[in-house]
Amino acid sequence: MTIRYPATPTADQIRRAPKVLLHDHLDGGLRPGTVVDLARARGYEALPETDPERLGRWFREAADSGSLERYLETFAHTCAVMQTRDALFRVAAECAEDLADDGVVYAEVRYAPEQHLEGGLTLDEVVAAVNEGLREGERRARARGRRIRVGALLTAMRHAARSLEIAELANAHRDDGVVGFDIAGAEAGHPPTRHLDAFEYLKRENNHFTIHAGEAFGLPSIWQAIQWCGADRLGHGVRIIDDIRVADDGTVTLGRLAAYVRDKRIPLEMCPSSNLQTGAAASYAEHPIGLLRRLQFRVTVNTDNRLMSGTSMTREFELLTEAFGYTLDDMRWFTVNAMKSAFIPFDERLAMINDVIKPGYAELKSEWLFRQNGSTSASGQREAP
Ligand SMILES: O=c1[nH]cnc2c1ncn2[C@@H]1O[C@H](CO)[C@@H](O)[C@H]1O
Ligand SMILES: [Zn+2]
Questions:
Q1: Is residue 297 part of a domain?
Q2: Residue to mutate, 30, 72, 304, ligand 1, most ligand atoms under 8 Å from C-beta
Q3: Total domains in the fold of the chain
Q4: What is the predicted ipTM?
Q5: Crossing angle between the packed helical segments 358-371 and 328-341, to the nearest 10 degrees
């Protein structure tokens, strides 16, 4: 006889569960109050609101545009206030703290160094400021009894022409907090193959990269990212659904590209709330993550931009639990997927899975055993002998 645990985790369990985040933009995750403070310090007067609560709402509503291009316009304000060493340090430290408070144990946070040079910093100084801030945030979290490890991904903007330079920067800082590379920005009209030299350079250096692909543009973008550029992971990748046919009787047929992505266990960094805002998915219940999880693609759950989506890892999992009835076992599956797909060394990933993630979920599940004598009766939750 085996005990069947209650099906859905509580909000509190979701928050306390160890979580792994692979796709989170530093310039999309500022606290609204910090944006206000930094704008005031720098004399930046173009903020649409100066009350933190109203500003937070403004970001969420402006990002709720149904188009990636309009969604991306909101980053002009966050980037504008991230132009000095102190500002970058503060934003990075708060990022690590906020993620730790949300129960994230490992995160890869990305940003585009080329967007932080207006105050006179060099690319190397930008990277150093963010790394120092992340280390400070880890320390503050530890002082409060929370453990988190945060790596940085350096992003090149796909409409610009600095990707090789940023790839070299990522490689130069690989033993110093930078775990990989990415390209981001408007997808339509900016195919990943324009940055082939950057990707080929990183492959020659045995380095890692992910590519935003299959978010605002479909299969050709995913195909190029994988087969031309050699991406280790896909940022979003939701449009892979266009290569999957589900017949009326439920039979599923994968096209060649979808089959390749699943066969090769290529990680998909899915960001449900962000996708709803940019129009890449219509609702949580209809988000491709449901089908892709059932088909056992290497799916991971991510926040993308916590400020623009007013979200957190806890909230993304709550929304998915509501939409798909996910259990703690599903959550653990997504989390192990993410940890397997991280860009840190294999032995460290394995240790995180075995020594942090699995024990964390086992601990949460076991809580139920001690609750059964209390008011929440467990009758009916045991499997028949
Ligand atoms: O979902 C997204 N798709 C594509 N680009 C994005 C997304 N979120 C943010 N950025 C872009 O990445 C830059 C560096 O962090 C941001 O400034 C934003 O322009
Ligand atoms: Zn993104």
A1: yes
A2: 72
A3: 1
A4: 0.99
A5: 170
